[in-house]
Amino acid sequence: MGKWKSPVLALVAAGIGTVIAVPGPAMASVGEFAGQWTMHQSNGYVVSLDVGPAGAGGAFTGTAHYNAITGAIVSGRLAATDVTFEIHWSDGKQGRYIGHAAGPQRWIGECDQIGTSPVHAHWSAVPA
Predict the structure, then answer these.
(1) Rounded distance, CA 11 to CA 88, Å?
(2) Could you give the CA distance from residue 29 to residue 11 in angstroms, rounded to a whole number?
(3) What phi and psi values does residue 34 have, to the nearest 5 degrees?
(4) Which of 28-32, 102-106, 113-117 has the highest average model confidence (pLDDT)?
């Protein structure tokens, strides 16, 4: 996509060979997890994620929200199109999330509750 940060629509003007580049809507790249996401879990929870950019080695942090409960995204790791992270919720519960990119604007995976009675769910996330 060259210098453009979003998809580009190129138009050829009236047969004279002039090309006009018009930026399209911004899209997350495959393997880009930073930003705001809405995560739907198969057990009915809908979680808002605000994920910081990945630093050295793919490490990232962020915040999560479900109703009035907040969570810290910790131990985040992004490797190409694979992602792992934990959410430590303010109510004391913790979840471990493992997933991968399923396209430029969609992530899918599985999650498990840590440390208490086992809860397992599938999840998918799209830009908020």
Answers:
(1) 49
(2) 23
(3) -70, 145
(4) 102-106
Residue found under tokens 């907040």? 70
Domains of the chain: 1-27 (no CATH), 35-127 (2.40.128.30)
Predicted confidence (pLDDT) per residue in 13-32, tens digit: 334 444 444 443 344 555 68
Q: Which two three-digit tokens encode residue 3?
A: 């210098």
pLDDT tens track for 69-95:
999 999 999 998 999 999 999 999 999
Rounded to the nearest 5 percent, the helix, strand and coil shares of the chain are: 0, 60, 40
**CA pair distance 38, 127, nearest whole angstrom:** 6
Under 8 Å between Cβ of 64 and 49? yes
Predicted structure pTM score: 0.76
Measure CA of the first residue to CA of the last residue in the chain; give whole Å: 24
Contact 91, 75 (CB under 8 A): no
